[in-house]
Amino acid sequence: MRIRNVVQLHTVNKLQAFGWPLVIMLLSLTVVLIIGALVVNVAAAAGDGAQARAGMNMGMQWNGAIFALLGPLIGFGFTAMGQYFPLALGLGLTRREFATGTALVFAGNAAFYAVIITIGKVIEVATGGFGLGIRFFDTHFTGTGEWWQTLVQTFLLILSVMLVGAAITTAFHRWGQSFLWVFWIALAVVVLAFSAGLVLSEPFRGFAVDVGTMGWLPWMGVVALLGAVGAAVWLALVRRAQAR
Amino acid sequence: MTAIVTRQLSKHYPEVRALDGVSIALEEHRIHGLLGRNGAGKTTLMQLLTGQVFATDGTMEVLGASPVENADVLMQTCFIQESQKYPDTFRAIDVLRVAAGAYPNWDQAFADRLVDEFRLPVKRMIKKLSRGQLSAIGIVVGLASRAPLTFFDEPYLGLDAVARRMFYDRLLADFSEHPRTVVLSTHHIDEVANLLEHVIILDEGRVLLDADTDELHHAAMAVSGRAADVDAFLSDREVLERTVLGTLATATFTARAGDERAAREAGLDVSQVSLQALFVLLTTANAAAAEQPIGTRSATDVATS
User: Fold this and answer.
1) Interface test with B, best of A8, A91, A175, A235 (most B CBs within 10 A)
2) Cβ A83–B69 below 8 Å, yes or no?
3) Domain harbouring B251, CATH code
């Protein structure tokens, strides 16, 4: 099995594979830090700097700035099949080799960036939001609990999204535009049904609240399940995927 | 030994029979030409032989085994296709680095020399390269891989005449030093005619002609002269094409032994038919024959071998 060649295919351009995501993350963090510093300074001038820090720390629990890093990683699942798979076939790699190597790259990427985010979170928490009360790494998207929970959550989130992305792209590769029509219509029906349930059904509303407030571990189970379904679909479809 | 054997190989899509019952055998260590009009099935055949797509019917052996998901076979094959897609973030040097790892016989010094000769800007993003520079990437990979079985599918789209000449020269020189099996698909037939040892012409997914180029040099002949003389000479011969201009006529026909002498004795001028002209005649005749109702097809219909 030429797994090393597949890994090399995905990581040959180190700047693109590792450099730019980190640069973009640091730029995003810098913007958040500047905004945080401005807010704290203005508030301090008015005599309520501590309150501003506390307010930001509370209000930024859903800060999505970390998606500056997670976004490109989400896209990696799509590009792995959309752009790297045709080249892998062109270079004489088998589908089995490509799938095995790419799954390893997914796992490696997820682990690498999960460690980066966890280190960032530990520093952020230890310094009180970099002395400003801001939240960049310590959010609900990456886990607001213990550091190891952030590590596990971020790893599972990145890995699952990559696998689902690869599965969607492989299905598109196989069935073309008709798959996208079915996918978007099915998604719209699910969203519509969910919204209708929330508006029209009291028991459903209660159920949704129960799901929304369930603990960290069950949520990790949901994320892992999504990733497992994505992996199963991807691996099943890639075995018969053809060059387009 | 044969490098490639297919038997009744077919690839059907919902709306088209891209390949329909193709049976061929290509000997190893030769340069084979795979010719055909656009949509004839050339790329599909090469995609099948490199395991990129799956056959609808038939069997194939590449280097003695099925190529489908067969790493042992595929690591010995290199497929350079004009429509090859590259990741948006790739530079030419990234492709060359990956190729260097993928092909066991890769010659880095040769690759570096080719990069210089084709003036390939290896550190520029691929999406910013011209069509010719994209083709140059494929040529460098195809030649430097030294794969025992190399497929070139229209490898020089966008390349200027100098670069194309350079490709032919490097291919021939490296082939002489490192014999391997090359399958070359192209529309520049006359440019490669001297390279090819064996030719397969595909038309509408079927094999229209399968012959050594030596045989083809004598397969057809053109005569010209007074129309009456030409017509008299052609009376019992298989005519591929005939044009009349006033009292003069020119005709191309399937040649038999002694035809050249007979034509000269009949007072006609004789000339050889180039491979490209033969290709045009055969594919045109085949298209015309396909349009005729069954039962009315003439002796000029193209025979496949």
Assistant:
1) A91
2) no
3) 3.30.70
**Contact flag A1-B71 (C-beta cutoff 8 Å):** yes
| Best B45, B48, B52 residue to mutate vs chain A (most A CBs within 10 Å) | B52
**ipTM higher than the 0.85 cut:** no
Sign of CA dihedral B201, B61, B51, B130: negative
Residue B287 pLDDT: 72
Q: What is the residue-wise DSSP string for B264-300?
A: HHTT-EEEEPPHHHHHHHHHHHHHHHHHSPTT---TT
Quote the number of domains for chain A.
1
Residues B156 and B262 reside in one and the same domain: no
- Chain A residue at shortest CA distance from B74: A92
Contact B224, B268 (CB under 8 A): yes
Q: Which residue is it, tokens 């095995």?
A: A100
Q: What is the mean pLDDT of residues A144-161?
A: 94
User: B236 lies in which domain range?
Assistant: 216-291
Q: What is the pLDDT of residue B292?
A: 62
Closest-CA residue of A relative to B94 is: A12
**Helical axes A202-212 vs A177-200, angle rounded to 10°:** 110
Nearest to B87 among A2, A8, A87 (CB): A87
Give the rounded percent of residues in chain A with a pLDDT score beyond 90.
Answer: 66
Question: Could you tell me if B37 and B178 lie in one domain?
Answer: yes
Identify the closest residue of chain A to B100 by CA–CA distance. A5
In angstroms, the CA B68 to CA B73 distance is 9
CATH number, domain of B206, equals 3.40.50.300
- Using an 8 Å CB-CB cutoff, list chain A residues near B53: 242-243
Provide the pLDDT confidence category of residue B93 given band limits of 50, 70 and 90: very high
Mean pLDDT of B106-129: 94
- Whether residue B26 is found in the same domain as residue B122: yes
| C-alpha of A184 from chain center | 20
Mean per-residue pLDDT for B205-232?
Answer: 88
Q: What order do you get walking across the sheet with B2-13 strand by strand?
A: B16-27, B2-13, B57-62
CA atoms of B165 and B179, how far apart (whole Å): 20
